[in-house]
Write a sequence for this structure.
């Protein structure tokens, strides 16, 4: 006889989890899509009753996003412009039903190379909060996701929140996604980009992340470094992009696109994102 538990407190959930043997679910928008998924095949801990792990709050030096916060909540959050890319991603995840049920924490824990939430949060230097009955630990997102469907989450831990550092400067961010159609589609390529402008009209900080082109979404560190200090009123920033900046990407070929197509699409999306941000901040 399988168990289905829906705790109403984090302490209760962690207590059950410490016993071992449970599969953790939230919105279930990925759980029943697995090739091996069968109804009532696992002992389940359903987290949807944990109100303390939902919602967005201002916590002094950072914004705290509860892991159970839905895509719909993120799309209408009214957060500062640094989060515009995340809101754009949220509006493109599945349809309205998926956006109302799916959670940002579930998207990260599922750790698909095509997870729409990863590039925007990677771009924002997000940190994940992991809790167990033994305590709390914090991990940068880029060390939490280890590969395709693999994370650093321990069997007795829950991802309870995502912490995003505040950046008070003048910023703009964008999320661009290529799929076989506009909505309800798995990404072929995704790009999230952010620029921060200084009082002198130059770029103080750039962040660019590409998804669906590697086992884990990747930041384009060399491009970010080259963009820093450039004037927003000068030549198009898209002209800065070179093949060397994309050298760290390792796209694969599958039914949605070849490796070569993905790499070329990534180049075009990065250029489009940079041009849009430059226009926004001028």
């Amino acid at each position: 006889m399988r168990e289905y538990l829906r705790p109403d407190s984090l302490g209760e959930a962690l207590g059950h989890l410490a016993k071992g043997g449970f599969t953790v679910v939230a919105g279930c928008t990925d759980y029943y899509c697995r090739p091996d998924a069968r109804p009532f095949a696992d002992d389940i801990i359903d987290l949807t009753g944990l109100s303390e792990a939902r919602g967005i709050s201002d916590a002094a030096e950072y914004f705290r996003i509860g892991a159970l916060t839905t895509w719909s909540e993120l799309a209408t959050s009214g957060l500062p412009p640094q989060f515009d890319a995340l809101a754009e991603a949220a509006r493109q995840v599945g349809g309205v039903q998926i956006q109302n049920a799916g959670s940002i924490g579930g998207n990260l824990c599922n750790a698909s190379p095509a997870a729409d939430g990863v590039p925007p949060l990677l771009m924002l230097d997000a940190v994940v909060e992991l809790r167990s009955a033994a305590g709390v630990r914090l991990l940068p997102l880029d060390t939490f996701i280890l590969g395709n469907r693999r994370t650093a989450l321990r069997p007795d831990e829950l991802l309870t929140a995502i912490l995003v550092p505040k950046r008070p400067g003048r910023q703009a961010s964008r999320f661009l996604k290529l799929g076989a159609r506009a909505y309800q589609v798995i990404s072929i390529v995704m790009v999230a980009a952010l620029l921060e402008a200084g009082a002198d009209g130059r770029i103080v900080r750039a962040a660019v992340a590409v998804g669906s082109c590697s086992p884990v979404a990747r930041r384009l560190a060399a491009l970010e470094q080259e963009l820093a200090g450039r004037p927003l009123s000068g030549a198009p920033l898209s002209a800065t992009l070179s093949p060397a900046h994309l050298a760290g990407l390792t796209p694969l070929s599958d039914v949605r696109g070849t490796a070569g197509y993905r790499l070329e699409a990534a180049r075009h999306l990065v250029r489009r994102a940079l041009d849009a941000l430059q226009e926004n901040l001028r």
Observations:
- DSSP finds nine helices and 14 strands in the chain.
